[in-house]
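Q: Fold this one first, please.
A: Sequence and structure below.
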Amino acid sequence: MADETEEPFWKTTPLRDMNRKQWESLCDGCGRCCLEKLRDGDTNELFFTNVACKQLDLRNCQCKDYKHRQQIVPDCVQLTSRNIRRLDWLPDTCGYRLVAEGRDLHWWHPLVSGDPKTVHQAGISVRGRAISERAAGDLEDHIIDWIK
């Protein structure tokens, strides 16, 4: 049994040194990064929409085919320890972003709570708030302000 005073891996292991299991566990399962975004070409301002990528399962907020996501959706961005800090569209609540910035994970993150449902219970996930691409129409009609 691990010493209870031992710091969790996300506080002691740099992103670049995390193994695959540690890396993948930083995802809280909110689905926010899988929402379509718009960027103003003149001002570079970023706008989030409530329109989900066609691969996002709207009930469980997980990718329908994570392993093949980039073949199915070519512009799907794979997060790496090198690009995390440059991706301005990652929500402030994102576990990868928090760890990259030296901040701690929130209480509802599954690594902290021990329960993958707390991200939904806390109202952080897109469950019940996102719509499918097929139902959306024009993205401009779906700009939201509940993601920062």
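Q: Good. Now the second chain.
A: Here it is, same layout.
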Amino acid sequence: MASVRTGAFFIGGDDMTQTQKNITELKEKIKKICQACGRNVDEIKLVAVSKTFPIEAIEEVIETGQMAFGENKAQEIRDKMESAASKEIEWHFIGPLQKNKVKYIAGKTALIHSVEDEKVAFEIDKRAAGEGKVQDILIEVNISGEKTKHGLDTHQAQTLIQNLQTFQNIRVIGLMTMAPFTDDEQVIRETFKGLRLLRDRLQLKFPLIQELSMGMTNDYSIAIEEGATLLRIGSAIFQR
């Protein structure tokens, strides 16, 4: 996957809309955080979470050089992919995925971040095969153990990854998690660190597992410090 990864900018100064200014400032902040913690910014991909915003808002952001966008509803991403078919957008599906909605995204998106069920994975494999594609996916892990969050525990995640090794049209390339919504930075850090350590252990057996999708508007700086390779950021970019 790679490359923010920050993108070139084709507009500037007073010609920018507020949304364009937001993403420009965000990418500068990402670069500074990387410099401060000794990371290469090219290791990080920013996924602009455009859920509920119209295709026009996405087109504004494209003008800044940003091409990776995330959506959390299958029918909404389907409609946007159709509306923007002429654009070279890299679409990411980041929301909970039901088996009956797989047909809208499998083999059509760059990455599905939120796989936590073998039946859903089987459907992704089948649909991707029908598209003649191999679908890259991440396994969603509930590192914090919160009952209100989606995702598998670490043992379940390893079992699922093992079971998916025989699937021909799925490629597990990493893990995804969400940190608790809290002001306690240590709790957030431990969540992200836990995902990184799990990734490192899994890599010994499954070397394709590289990506760490973690970090949103409220906690992306900690996620970068703990090794995130994919940031899912929406409200810092798109504002009503």
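Q: Anything worth noting on the second one?
A: Residues 13-233 form a domain with the TIM Barrel fold (CATH 3.20.20.10).
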